From TrEMBL:
S-adenosyl-L-methionine binds at residues 35, 60-62, 84-85, 125, 192. The keyword rRNA processing does not apply. Transmembrane segments: none annotated. Pfam families: Methyltransf_31. It comes from the Bacteria. Its EC number is 2.1.3.-. Catalyzes the conversion of S-adenosyl-L-methionine (SAM) to carboxy-S-adenosyl-L-methionine (Cx-SAM). This is Carboxy-S-adenosyl-L-methionine synthase. Belongs to the class I-like SAM-binding methyltransferase superfamily. Cx-SAM synthase family. It catalyses: prephenate + S-adenosyl-L-methionine = carboxy-S-adenosyl-L-methionine + 3-phenylpyruvate + H2O. Keywords: S-adenosyl-L-methionine, Transferase. Residues 51-168 form the Methyltransferase domain. The gene is cmoA.
């Protein structure tokens, strides 16, 4: 379905409810630059580190796209688990997995409290930015401690920059991208207002320092477009 969530006046802050879940795949493809290309890049890299029976956990798995694509592309027998606190997202993820005939377990839960131990890889695509800053450092530390000795963490985030002029330029470029994808200025403004104080981005350096402070030693940026980036961190 086409994303028309913000073509009317908003009445609440952004949340991953039934209305959003029903159009979320379209929302991602139109709102997150190079979403499919970045997802495929992550999977192509991750596959090289996986063995049979490895546990892969996707935090904020939404409609399940990452794990479903990983299941389709990998020749390994993997333990794939998606965690999301939105019942509407879990329902759609399960329906998609069934339609594609892949074995992925989607769980409705709060990943801040869920046991992530013995994971070979943990994924958080555009998820950590929705965690309140006071809880964010603790979550990243929990992720580090939950990974196996040679575990991998993949994290995609929206960024800000400390240079105010550059930050405005990057935001303007991003909004122009959204216009090219068919969003009106009204829809862009409505979504920006709905996300106020819900999505709280860090700078590139803040994200890297957060990963280092949690214990990760090798950290690389494998994708960046304007104010979006994907990090890979090795335990």
């Amino acid at each position: 379905m086409k994303d028309n969530v913000f073509n009317k006046p908003i009445k609440k802050q952004f949340e991953f409810d039934e209305e959003v879940a029903s159009v979320f795949d379209d929302m991602l493809n139109r709102s997150v630059p190079f979403y499919k290309e970045n997802l495929n890049l992550q999977i192509d890299i991750l596959k090289n580190f996986l063995n049979d029976n490895d546990k892969i956990v996707d935090l904020g798995s939404s409609t399940g796209t990452f794990l479903i694509e990983l299941a389709k592309k990998s020749n390994k027998k993997l333990n794939l688990i998606g965690i999301d606190n939105s019942p509407a997202m879990i329902k759609r993820a399960n329906n998609k997995a069934k339609a594609f005939g892949v074995d992925v377990k989607f769980i409705e839960a709060d990943f801040l409290k869920y046991n992530l131990e013995n994971s070979k890889s943990i994924i958080a695509n555009y998820t950590i930015q929705f965690v309140r800053p006071l809880k964010r450092e603790k979550l990243i530390k929990k992720i580090y401690e939950s990974l196996e000795r040679d575990g991998i963490f993949l994290m995609s985030e929206k960024l800000i920059t400390e240079n105010k002029k550059l930050n405005k330029i990057m935001i303007d470029i991003y909004y122009e991208h959204k216009k090219q994808k068919g969003y009106s200025e009204f829809e862009i403004a409505q979504k920006r207002e709905a996300l106020e104080n819900v999505l709280i981005p860090y700078t590139m350096q803040e994200n890297i320092e957060m990963l280092k402070n949690a214990g990760f030693k090798d950290i690389e940026v494998i994708f960046r477009w304007n104010n979006f980036a994907t990090f890979i961190a090795f335990k």
